[in-house]
Amino acid sequence: MNATPTETDRDARRQIGALPYRRMRDGTYTILLITSRESRRWVIPKGWPMKGRKPFEAAAREAYEEAGLLGSIGKRPLGFYLYEKRLKSRDSVLCQVKVYPLEVRKQLKTWPEKDEREDRWFSPAEAADAVAEPGLAAIIRAACKRDAEVLR
């Protein structure tokens, strides 16, 4: 998950993301994934750092804009993963996403990107299987094996 950075990793563009989760009454967790706008693959809410906001605050903002989520965001990242982002120019760029845990309190009825994406709650195992990026799958599996203390 947090391997020693290679030359390529150091050249990666930095992004921030939120791993939205809920703790169920029986003590299990569910994870919310959304579809990307272009490829429609399952992803977490993520984006570029925002001027004037700490990384975890920007991650919480992305979760609101992309999935209508409100909740408590962790200040420490769970880890990071790498992926190739396709740009509008059809080029691609390597991105490193720092992932912050977001304990979801509420999902709003409307939000900025509601009509551009689908969203769905998954069990942790289903969420890890649904995402294309092995590093993100590893973060989901590791986070949900730990207790709630780590997710906060």
TrEMBL record:
GO terms for cellular component: cytoplasm. Gene3D superfamilies: Nucleoside Triphosphate Pyrophosphohydrolase. Keywords: Hydrolase, Magnesium, Metal-binding. Pfam families: NUDIX (PF00293). It comes from the Bacteria. Residues 11-144 form the Nudix hydrolase domain. Its cofactor is Mg(2+). GO terms for molecular function: metal ion binding; pyrophosphatase activity. PANTHER family: DIPHOSPHOINOSITOL POLYPHOSPHATE PHOSPHOHYDROLASE, DIPHOSPHOINOSITOL-POLYPHOSPHATE DIPHOSPHATASE. This is 8-oxo-dGTP pyrophosphatase MutT, NUDIX family.
